[in-house]
Amino acid sequence: MKTIDVCLSPDLIHLFEVKNKIVVVVDILRATSCMATGLAYGVKAIRPFASLDECRAMKSEGYFIAGERNGDKVPGFDLGNSPFDYMDPLLKDKSIAVTTTNGTVAIEKSQEASQIVIGCFLNISAVAEYLKEQENDALILCAGWKGKVNMEDSLFAGALVEKLQNDFANECDAPLLVQAAYQDMSHNLLALVQSSSHAKRLHKLNIYEDIEYCLKMDLYNIVPVLKDGEIVLLQETTTP
Ligand code: MLT
After folding, report:
1. Which of helix, strand or coil describes residue 151?
2. Which of 78, 85, 120, 192 could cross-link to 33 by cystine, CB 3.0-4.6 Å?
3. H helices present in 4-138, as ranges
4. Distance separating the N- and C-terminal Cα atoms of the chain
């Protein structure tokens, strides 16, 4: 039987065997939710960068540049990191370079994987169906916050483990832990995530709608993957 595991922080990834695995990178608030939204709205490709300067330099290559640090939009960039920014019709068929505090770091740390898939609640069922069809073992990598574990990514991991429980065996205890947490909290997900540390950070920046939107389930039947350094769509898209 294929196996699934959960890495609760990018700072723990060295403890996991990544080669030959599909790594699902998740950053619910808000990096991977933005990436899924952009591709669902017709963005051609999203190139992730851990480095601010490398991302900024992509402007001269004709990319839109997007990013945040500590939740706040990077001054001088075209976009911040709100999923609503990624719905702009101006971005249709365009390419975006993006850098975020945690999400793009998690993608960078997963490069040894056989494939990197972008996951969030907005496309969770599409990701689950895709993983069931593949032969590879899977690892869910939570972006967390500066190396620390966060609530929303862990709950996503629990929800995905639950959807895959008949097709994947748990490789260690983390899948059990996050699944139990999700089962216990799924009835009141939005309210609980609103009390999370990053939601509070975003509230201080007067950001509320993004949180509610990023907790919506299955708005998009899409599977974004990293291909030649860019995040693109693997399967058909259903734009709203
Ligand atoms: C991150 O990478 O930490 C997040 O995407 C931050 C944010 O968007 O607020």
Report:
1. helix
2. 120
3. 31-40, 52-57, 103-108, 124-133
4. 36
pTM equals 0.96
Lining residues, ligand 1, CB within 6 Å? 27, 29-31, 68, 71, 81, 100-103, 143
Band of residue 208 on the pLDDT scale cut at 50, 70, 90 = very high
Asked if the bond preceding 30 is cis, omega within 30° of 0, the reply is yes
Separation CA 194–CA 60 (nearest Å): 38
Burial grade of 10 (CB within 10 A; 0-12, 13-18, 19 or more)? buried
Residue 235, pLDDT > 90, answer no
> Which has more pLDDT, 235 or 117?
117
Across 46-58, b (16+ Cβ under 10 Å) vs e yields bbbbbeeeebbeb
CB neighbourhood size of 173 (10 A): 10
Residue type, 13: I
Is-contact 199 193, C-beta < 8 A? yes
Which residue, among 191, 205, 109, 104, has the nearest Cα to 152 in the 3D structure? 191
For residue 31, which atom of ligand 1 is closest to its CA? Answer: 5
